[in-house]
Amino acid sequence: MLSEKEQIYRLALHLTPKIGSRLSRVLLGHFESAENIFSQTKQSLQKIPQIGEGIIHNLFDKMLLERAKEEYELTQKHDISLYFYSEDNYPYKLKQIPDAPTLFYFKGQKESLENQKMVAVVGTRKATEAGRKFCRELIYELQKFNDLTIVSGLAIGIDVEAHKASLKSNIPTIGVMANGMGKVYPSFHNKIAEEMCHQGGLITEGQMFSKPDSGKFPARNRIIAGLCDVTLVIEAAEKGGALITAELANSYDREIMAVPGRPSDKYSAGCNKLIKKHKAHLLNEFSDLEYLMNWGDDGQQLSLFHEKQKPTFHNQDEERIYQELETGVKMLDELVYRLKIPQTQLAALLLSLELNGVIRPLPGKRFELC
């Protein structure tokens, strides 16, 4: 577990303008800790790819650490947990996406983040009564599964309908917000957000009092898609946030299902388009979801794979890489950070394992076992 001091330094890195999740991981991979990053000279930072004068100037802002300390105190005061990408408690599925947040804020029941089955339910803000009814009935049937969480975006329309139906059905539900924890958006969802913290929770990567600017919603959507095994699009127009979430889920190799509608229905156009382009499976009823996800009657996913025999390694470092990848897909930066192997040496080891059929590369400098 990270020390309080290191958490504050990582918050400072998170608050630094022009440094996103990927660049944060690059810096942490090189310098091993956020505290070390802030103790570097300008000359040392200039040697890192993608680090320009503007970013270096921002890192030397003396107020960053003060703001980070204030932010940390607010999280402690309001019982908000910080989840860091490098830590073991970071959600496994979210860690597999190439643009996973370096850190996020969470308020609620931590068990809801650890459930085996994670289902995203998204759709238009202008939901029809038929769409709302389908959403409620589908979620009601999800009660049969143990170890399941419903994830959505706490927006008006299908999102909040999914959260309400989950609460009514005693299913944990998580709302991913584009704003900070300091204020719920829209404000009239305050009551349901409070209920969700007792039966699920709230997530954001925005600092405490950040506002839900339009550019933050696509970033919010990637967390919804990244957390989940499958994304269900209940209703969606030809353009909108629900389709962005579906496209992101598709890019992460996650399953997508969409509820079809008549060609004349404005808020079925997006769903029909996803199905037409073979990006989404058809969702007519609950059994379609159960069949696609291979969830048995007892709510457990049936295994289609036999245990693999462990390969022979040329050296200890190859075995260490294998052990890391046994827990799931890893990014190159994460392997550098966790194994403490120089990137050039690690690249050669990965190539050797790939040529021997032990691992395979994935888009976004990610690797997995064959």
UniProtKB/TrEMBL annotation:
<feature type="domain" description="Smf/DprA SLOG">
    <location>
        <begin position="83"/>
        <end position="289"/>
    </location>
</feature>
<dbReference type="InterPro" id="IPR036388">
    <property type="entry name" value="WH-like_DNA-bd_sf"/>
</dbReference>
<dbReference type="GO" id="GO:0009294">
    <property type="term" value="P:DNA-mediated transformation"/>
</dbReference>
<protein>
    <submittedName>
        <fullName>DNA processing protein</fullName>
    </submittedName>
</protein>
<dbReference type="Pfam" id="PF02481">
    <property type="entry name" value="DNA_processg_A"/>
</dbReference>
<dbReference type="InterPro" id="IPR003488">
    <property type="entry name" value="DprA"/>
</dbReference>
<feature type="domain" description="DprA winged helix">
    <location>
        <begin position="315"/>
        <end position="365"/>
    </location>
</feature>
<dbReference type="InterPro" id="IPR010994">
    <property type="entry name" value="RuvA_2-like"/>
</dbReference>
<comment type="similarity">
    <text>Belongs to the DprA/Smf family.</text>
</comment>
<dbReference type="InterPro" id="IPR041614">
    <property type="entry name" value="DprA_WH"/>
</dbReference>
<dbReference type="Pfam" id="PF17782">
    <property type="entry name" value="WHD_DprA"/>
</dbReference>
<dbReference type="InterPro" id="IPR057666">
    <property type="entry name" value="DrpA_SLOG"/>
</dbReference>
